[in-house]
Amino acid sequence: MGGAILSGLVQPHIEVDGGITVTNRTRAKAEPLAGLRGVASIALEERPDGNRAAVADAAVVLVAVKPAMVPDLLREIAGDLAPGTIVVSVAAGVTVATFESILPAGVSVIRSMPNTPSIVGRGLTGLSAGTRSSSDDLALVRSVFETVGEVLEVPEDKLDALSTISGSGPAYVFYLIEEFTRTAIGKGFSPEEADLLVSQTFLGAAELLVSSDRTAEELRIQVTSPKGTTERAIAVLQAAGLERTFTEATDAALARARELAAPTPD
C-alpha cells in the first residue's frame, strides 16, 4: 500500500516540498524506488538507522508496515520526530490511541485506510483525525491521498467498518469475477472470451453507476425487464440470501479488525 501511495506522489504534476524518503528492509526492495523522481530510497540492511534518518526532517510520515510491527517502529523513531510532524497510520486495526501513547505529545496522528485500487489512481481512502491533529493537518494528509483517488473522512469508530467495505471490498469483487468467469467458461466460452465478457461487464457497470445520477437499485431495475431472463436470474440470487451473506462476511472482517486492534499481552 505504501508503494501505491508513492506512485501517486511521484506523478509529474505533483510537487512535494523537500522530496520523499522511503525505507525498506532489503536492498532488493529499495533499489527499484531509487530511480523515481524526487525519491531517496534507503535499505535498512545497509543502513540500520534509516528509519530515524528518514523521519528526522519530515513534515509527514506514513507508517505502512504490518500491524504487529507498529509499536516497535514507533518507539524507534519517536525521538527523531520534530514537534508538528504528522504521522499517518496505514496499518490496519492499529488505533490512534496506540500511536499517541508512544509518540511525543507534539506529534499529530491521523489514521488512514486506503485500498488497492489506489495503485491505478482509483482508490478510496478513509481518514480519521487523532486527538492532537488539526484541520490543517487533516487537509494536508487528505491532499496526499487524493493523488491516488477519493477520500472519505470518518470518525475513528467507523474506520474499521469502512475497511470491511472499501478496504476488503476489492477482494470481494475479484472473488465475484472469479466465480462469474468460471460460469462463463462452463457455458462454453474460452478462458480469454470469458475474461473479456466478465471484466468488461464489471467495468462497464461500475462506470455506468459512477456517471449516472441513478442508484444501483434503480439501474438494476432498469436492466431487469418484467418476466424476462434477468428477472429470473435475480430471483435465484435473492433466494440464495446474498444480503445475509454480505452482512455476515463484513461482520467477520470487522471482528478480525477489532482483534488486530486489541492490545497484546507483554
From TrEMBL:
It catalyses: L-proline + NADP(+) = (S)-1-pyrroline-5-carboxylate + NADPH + 2 H(+); L-proline + NAD(+) = (S)-1-pyrroline-5-carboxylate + NADH + 2 H(+). GO terms for cellular component: cytoplasm. The keyword ATP-binding does not apply. Residues 1-93 form the Pyrroline-5-carboxylate reductase catalytic N-terminal domain. GO terms for biological process: L-proline biosynthetic process. InterPro entries: 6-PGluconate_DH-like_C_sf (IPR008927), NAD(P)-bd_dom_sf (IPR036291), P5C_Rdtase_cat_N (IPR028939), P5CR-like_CS (IPR053790), P5CR_dimer (IPR029036), Pyrroline-COOH_reductase (IPR000304). NADPH binds at N51. Gene3D superfamilies: NAD(P)-binding Rossmann-like Domain (3.40.50.720), ProC C-terminal domain-like (1.10.3730.10). NADP(+) binds at A64, V65, K66, P67. GO terms for molecular function: pyrroline-5-carboxylate reductase activity. Keywords: Amino-acid biosynthesis, Cytoplasm, NADP, Oxidoreductase, Proline biosynthesis. Residues 156-260 form the Pyrroline-5-carboxylate reductase dimerisation domain. Pathway: Amino-acid biosynthesis; L-proline biosynthesis; L-proline from L-glutamate 5-semialdehyde: step 1/1. Its EC number is 1.5.1.2. It comes from the Bacteria. It is found in: Cytoplasm. Belongs to the pyrroline-5-carboxylate reductase family. Catalyzes the reduction of 1-pyrroline-5-carboxylate (PCA) to L-proline. NCBIfam families: proC (TIGR00112). This is Pyrroline-5-carboxylate reductase. It comes from Labedella populi. The lineage of its organism: Bacteria, Bacillati, Actinomycetota, Actinomycetes, Micrococcales.
